[in-house]
């Protein structure tokens, strides 16, 4: 990855973490690595007003420009499967087998000076509110 891409990605992940905190989520991990790759952010928060906490697995996509459409459209089926596998590793490793979990995407658009221009949070992009299995 080019140095500029790393910088852009880090700016986007910082902005996404800040957004999640503002929404009341606690950041548990950033850049959680497994053999399938890395989950950008893992967070915990409330789940539809229930007492059980919700664990979020968040893929952050940062863009500079309008190419490729929406950020979530940059994620192919292979990447979705990798995120599911990585989420399962995290749940197992941390003894969280039966907790509500969800996969979200946060898109961050930067201007030419690498300042955040826009940020958008797509919740539950896989269409599943899951308990312990992703």
Explain what you see.
- This protein has 134 residues and is α+β, with helices and mostly antiparallel strands.
- The protein has a single domain (3-131), classed as Trna Endonuclease, Chain: A, domain 1, CATH 3.40.1350.
- It has helices spanning 3-22, 77-93, and strands at residues 26-34, 37-47, 50-63, 100-110, 116-122, 130-131.
- Strands 1, 2, 3, 4, 5 and 6 form a 6-stranded mixed β-sheet that branches.
- 25% of the residues are buried.
- This is UPF0102 protein AUJ59_00595.
- It comes from Candidatus Beckwithbacteria bacterium CG1_02_47_37.
Low-confidence stretches: none
- Quaternary: single chain
What is the element string, with H for helices and E for strands?
HEEEHEEE
Please identify the top-level CATH class: Alpha Beta
- Silhouette: globular
What structural class is derived from the secondary structure elements? alpha+beta
Average pLDDT value?
85
Q: Any idea what the CATH architecture is?
A: 3-Layer(aba) Sandwich
Radius of gyration using CA atoms only: 15 Å
GO molecular function: nucleic acid binding
Family: Belongs to the UPF0102 family.
Pfam family, one: UPF0102
Protein name: UPF0102 protein AUJ59_00595
Throw out a few tags for this protein:
alpha+beta; nucleic acid binding; Trna Endonuclease, Chain: A, domain 1; UPF0102 protein AUJ59_00595; UPF0102_YraN-like; six-stranded mixed β-sheet; 134 residues; globular; tRNA_endonuc-like_dom_sf
């Amino acid at each position: 990855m080019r140095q500029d891409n790393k910088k852009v990605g880090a700016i986007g992940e910082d902005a996404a973490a800040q957004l999640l905190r503002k929404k009341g989520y606690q950041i548990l991990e950033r850049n959680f690595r497994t053999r399938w790759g890395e989950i950008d952010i893992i967070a915990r928060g409330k789940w539809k007003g229930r007492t059980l906490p919700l664990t979020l697995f968040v893929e952050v996509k940062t863009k500079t420009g309008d190419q490729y459409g929406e950020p979530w459209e940059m994620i192919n089926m292979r990447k979705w499967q990798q995120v599911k596998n990585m989420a399962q590793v995290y749940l197992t490793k941390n003894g969280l087998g039966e907790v509500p979990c969800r996969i979200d995407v946060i898109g961050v658009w930067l201007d030419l000076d690498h300042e955040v221009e826009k940020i958008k949070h797509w919740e539950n992009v896989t269409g599943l509110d899951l308990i312990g299995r992703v």
